[in-house]
Amino acid sequence: NKKAFVELLFWKSPAAVCEMTKGYSSLQEGEGTTRSRVPPWTPQEEQELQELYWKYKEVEGGDIIAAILAHLPKPGRTRRQVVKQLVRM
User: Fold this and answer.
1) Using CA atoms, how far apart are residues 61 and 87, in angstroms rounded to an integer?
2) Is residue 27 a part of any domain in this protein?
3) Inside any domain, residue 54
4) Does some domain include residue 14?
5) Does residue 33 register a pLDDT over 70?
6) Distance in angstroms (rounded) separating the CA atoms of residues 12 and 38
7) Name one GO biological process term (predicted).
8) Residue 86 near residue 49 (C-beta atoms within 8 A)
9) 80 lies in a domain?
10) With 62 labelled, which of 4, 27, 43, 71 sits at a CA distance of 20 to 30 A?
11) Residue 20: which residues within 8 A CB-CB, separation 6 or more?
């Protein structure tokens, strides 16, 4: 590809570099960016997250995200995932 040098001008993730060197569509299913490894939020989880947010929003002097993480019924979510989901909602 004569124009591949243009791709070198931009930051790449390890998955993108692997594709560039081994050929596009070379990644197997389940490999690549972290987005594919993060389980999606179900409507039930979103509802529970929203209820917990409204419950702990008014608590003064406390960390809202820490309180939400402590009371999530399904453990395994990270602080970053919870914050991103709250911002998205």
Assistant:
1) 21
2) no
3) yes
4) no
5) no
6) 20
7) DNA repair
8) yes
9) yes
10) 43
11) 4, 7, 12
64-71 and 43-56 helices cross at what angle (nearest 10)?
130
Distances, alpha carbon 53 to alpha carbons 39, 48, 49, 87, in Å? 20, 8, 6, 11
The confidence band for 24, taking pLDDT boundaries of 50, 70 and 90, is: low
Confidence (pTM): 0.55
Q: What is the DSSP string of 16-59?
A: HHHHHHH-TT-SPTT-S-GGGTSPPPPHHHHHHHHHHHHHHTT-
Based on the structure, what is the number of domains in the chain? 1
> What domain range is 65 assigned to?
39-88
Q: How many CA atoms lie within 13 A of 89 on its CB side?
A: 18
Q: Output the six-digit token pair for 78.
A: 């990270």
How far apart are the C-alpha atoms of 6 and 48, rounded to whole Å? 45
